[in-house]
Amino acid sequence: MTTYIVTFEVNDISRQNALEEKLQEYKGYCPIHDNCWAVLSDQNPTEIRDFLDEALSESDRIFVIRSGTHSAWRNTYGEKNNEWLKEKL
């Protein structure tokens, strides 16, 4: 299972809600901030993008990258998210 970082710009709240619902379908997920989540998946980045693209319009943007070995952050959504990120990134 690989951790991926998914960043996005969605111009409509209903599409953002739909995208977040799709992100929650992954075996593991963690919101990092309003426009960035981490997900666990056996899919490759293209497959993740294509799966999530179903919730997006042509004007929305998405970027999927495999997590590397180094990371740093501040002000996540709480200690539960901090622990998830420390373990999975």
Q: How would you sum up this structure, described in words?
A:
The protein is of the alpha+beta class and 89 residues long. 34% of the residues lie in helices and 29% in strands. The chain has helices spanning 13-23, 45-53, 79-88, and strands at 2-9, 28-33, 36-41, 61-66. The longest helix has 11 residues, at 13-23. The termini are close together. 24% of the residues are buried.
Give short descriptive properties of this protein.
four-stranded antiparallel β-sheet; alpha+beta; 89 residues; 3 helices
Write the layout of secondary structure elements.
Layout: E1 2-9, H1 13-23, E2 28-33, E3 36-41, H2 45-53, E4 61-66, H3 79-88
Antiparallel strand pairs: 1-3, 1-4, 2-3
Write a brief structural summary.
By secondary structure, the protein is α+β, with helices and mostly antiparallel strands. The chain contains 3 helices and 4 strands.
Residue share in helix: 25-40%
Order of adjacent strands in the largest pleated sheet: 2-3-1-4
Strand content: 25-35%
- Assign the structural class, choosing from mainly alpha, mainly beta, alpha/beta, alpha+beta, or little secondary structure: alpha+beta
Write down the Rg.
12 Å
Shape: globular
Largest sheet: 4 strands, antiparallel
